[in-house]
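[09:14] KT: can someone run the structure on this one? pasting the chain below
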Amino acid sequence: MLSLAEPPIVAKVRRRLRRHGLTATLHAYGMRAINSAVSFRILRAMCLAQVNPAFLGCPAGYTAGFASREALYGFVEQPGSELSLKFVQQALSRGDQCFAICDGPSLVAYGWYAFRPTPTALPETLLHFDPRWVYRYKGFTLAPYRGRRLHAFGTTLALRHYLARGFCGFVAYVASTNFDSLKACLRVGYRPFGSICVLQAFGRLATFSTPGCDRLGFRLQSYSLSPFGTP
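[09:31] RB: done, structure tokens below
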């Protein structure tokens, strides 16, 4: 009896359904269809205000703490760190801080923390937020170390540090189609408080923030692209 191989697209859909469920799968393919015509993103705004005791302390065999300027320049040279000299210099010039987890001398996970309007991964945009909160961005774990909850440990230890200094907690955003990152954030204790929709077309930018974002001053500002309606 002949057996027909399952088409790759069908197999991919099945894997996504098993991993993320029907709603997330429909959302992912809906966003893909929209982006075949225009650049459109939905960013889920999230906040973290309580320490999860399950992730306090550093796992055995690792060291964790805020990285010095000298250490960060050394990490730039490490293959796979996804840190460039230009990025580190610009982040430090703004006063941003990096909480790092190392395995011996090697950087294996990190997250960056900002206290003022900060450039985002979107082209030529700044993220604004209530200064009572700290903006967490550019979280990264080296591929061989993923699945060990290093993101959760690093975030929780950094949160304890900033709460003790009078901040309300962390704000962050995750693309609505980045389901693995959304799950990781929820696991640590992040809670959604709104969304930002971003449309780019014809060299112009339009954003829409839900009321929850407005309450925390969480908004995107373009510093190059013209907003819609502006000549």
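[09:33] KT: thanks! The chain is about 30% helix and 30% strand.
[09:34] RB: yep, looked fine to me
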